[in-house]
Amino acid sequence: MASKQATSAAQGPGGTVPAMTTTTSPTHARRASAPARRGAVTSLTDHALLHRALRSGTRVVADALTGIAFDEPCCPVRQRELVRWTTRVLAEVRAHAALRRGLEAALSQVVLPGAPDLRRAGGDAALDSALARARQALPLFARDVSAGAPALALALTGLADLVATRLDAEEDGVLPLVDEHVPAAQRDRVVRAARRSLPAGQSLFTLPWLLDACHPAERITVLRTASRPARTVLRHAGARHARTRDAVLGLTG
């Protein structure tokens, strides 16, 4: 989930960025239509859109690295862009974990006494371990594709599965309660606090990444909600993101 400024988007050069296609593991295929069940996205500040992007962003690199580990071609450009994409997605996963903790803390202040603990024991520890494995494997892949791809593929596949499971639980349990009980102003403060943990320049990735996750029918509505600062960012970042995405997917020579 991103702040209003960090999650607005706009039209990039030459039009909107085309939607990303991903391969969803059988374990999580049942969730492929979950965002649609919650209604169409109308703003890039919507919970559903960030969740959609987190699912696809982690799965894309997991699938790409798995293919490379089984000798799919990986030129230096693809290697470089995979490192860039993975680094940015890992930052988004960490920020979302901080956001969820903040929302759970805000919710715990307003739920009725005697309500069950909203925090899942060990959940953050498992995510921290999965992130650490991915971060440790990434430099080796950056140096040597053949040596690094197998370990990074395993790490990213495990992370993608864990992220999907955590988002399932969040959508089924935490978010409905947050939407019902936590005031919008307090939610916005939590979002801003989580986004402050991100590295400089992250919005150059995040904005077109979120726009990529929009379904075609949603884009006109979503772009109408874009802030002027977001449109400025997208004018500079949209084409760059499209090249990164295509390289990650192995669509460039």
Automatic annotation (TrEMBL):
Protein name: Hemerythrin HHE cation binding domain-containing protein
Domain of life: Bacteria
Composition bias type Polar residues, residue spans: 1-10
Lineage of the organism: Bacteria, Bacillati, Actinomycetota, Actinomycetes, Geodermatophilales
Originating organism: Geodermatophilus amargosae
Region of interest: Disordered: 1-40
Composition bias type Low complexity, residue spans: 16-40
